[in-house]
Design goal:
The protein has nine helices and 17 strands. The chain is α+β, with helices and mostly antiparallel strands. A seven-stranded antiparallel beta sheet has the order 10-5-7-6-17-15-14. The longest helix is centred in the middle third of the chain and has 36 residues. It is globular.
């Protein structure tokens, strides 16, 4: 932990940060109305505000301190069967084939005439353009996987029990909402754009953000159900409803910290209030964790959201080979045809998840550790 002048900045990091990341943190700490900043151990460089940051303000809303994939998060559920059911290639191939059928990677076919659930359809967005996108892109992308680090993974816990973990957000809708509201922002003294929470523009952003959070949650739930159907059909094992956990790591909401009501922005960071259940995925091919929050006030009751990138996507594509991806994923079922396009998602492109958990032992308690058995990704 350490502090820099300006807003209170506190660090939970597993190694010294790069100059570029430190510069981005200092810029944020000296921006308008920023009161507290907490730096998570998975922090890495991103546009304007790094991923792995928690930012608290009194009244300012910073869309780039939430990011474009509003509501991006993780869901998990356990099954009543053992992960050993996937020890054979035939069943693993049947699971992957079923996932390709049931979960569109990018969007639904227009022939299927996809519809938004009634509650999402009825909730209004703040501009006609966003309403139009909701009906077009929103309906076509709901319950779809997307690219990048989003995934469906079947896992085994320490007892051998089979678990599912899904990582997905609001995709194009979240990005459109962020970009629309950035156009309504004022430029701050460090160039970071913000809205006043009590202004009409601020209230409109919060309205649209709430919709995107619900949209992302519904999408994860739909994907979980689709995977459950495939697993039950192929392996004959059913999910345990009581084990379901879902959390998101891109949001802003009103919370009280240090005795003061604040707007707490989390970009690639998870809420970790005392006893709050959370999910911290590792990289593709490395283990993940279920955790309980410790409610650490200095960290604004927050936690890392994953391993965090060690290499940028460009550097990973440049330095890692398809053979290396396959080698690093030995023991995990996946579609080997995608190896050349999964170089940026190789485990070596990410930080060591054990180092991340060690750096934030004040922030969460580990409930269980899980290893990957089968991974389904878009590329």
């Amino acid at each position: 932990m350490g502090d820099v002048p300006g807003a209170a900045v506190r660090y939970w990091v597993e190694r010294p940060l790069s100059h570029d990341v430190e510069a981005a943190i200092r810029r944020l700490a000296h921006s308008d109305d920023v009161r507290h900043v907490a730096v998570m151990p998975d922090v890495h460089l991103a546009a304007d505000v790094c991923v792995g940051m928690v930012v608290a303000t009194a009244n300012a809303l910073y869309p780039n301190a939430v990011g474009g994939d509003i509501g991006c998060g993780v869901a998990a559920i356990g099954f009543d069967g053992e992960a050993g059911l996937l020890d054979n290639e035939r069943d693993a191939a049947a699971i992957l084939a079923g996932l390709y059928r049931q979960i569109p990677l990018i969007r639904h076919s227009r022939k299927g005439d996809p519809r938004l659930p009634a509650a999402l359809d009825a909730a209004s967005l703040s501009s006609p353009r966003l309403e139009g996108l909701k009906q077009r892109e929103g309906s076509l992308q709901i319950g779809t996987l997307g690219r990048g680090n989003h995934f469906v993974e079947l896992q085994a816990d320490e007892t051998g029990r089979l678990w599912l973990m899904v990582h997905r957000g609001s995709r194009g809708m979240g990005q459109a909402i962020r970009d629309h509201h950035l156009g309504q922002c004022s430029a701050g003294r460090n160039g970071l754009r913000f809205l006043s929470a009590d202004s009409p523009a601020g209230r409109a952003y919060l309205q649209d953000l709430a919709w995107a959070l619900d949209y992302a949650e519904v999408s994860r739930s739909a994907m979980v159900q689709a995977v459950r159907d495939v697993v039950e059909d192929v392996l004959g094992t059913v999910a345990d409803e009581a084990s379901y956990v879902s959390c998101n790591h891109n949001h802003v909401r009103r919370e009280t910290h240090f005795g003061e009501p604040l707007w707490v922005h989390r970009k690639g960071a998870m809420s970790a209030a005392e006893g709050e259940r959370g999910l911290i995925p590792g990289s593709m091919g490395t283990h993940s964790f279920h955790v309980d929050g410790r409610g650490c006030e200095e960290a604004l009751s927050s936690s890392a959201h994953g391993a965090g990138r060690r290499l940028s996507r460009t550097d990973a594509r440049r330095s890692l080979s398809a053979k290396q991806v396959t080698r690093e994923l030995r023991g995990v079922w996946f579609d080997h045809r995608l190896a050349p396009r999964l170089r940026e998602e190789a485990p070596s492109a990410y930080k060591d998840i054990d180092d991340v958990l060690w750096a934030q032992h004040e922030l969460v308690r580990i409930v269980r550790k899980l290893r990957p058995v089968l991974c389904f990704k878009g590329a």
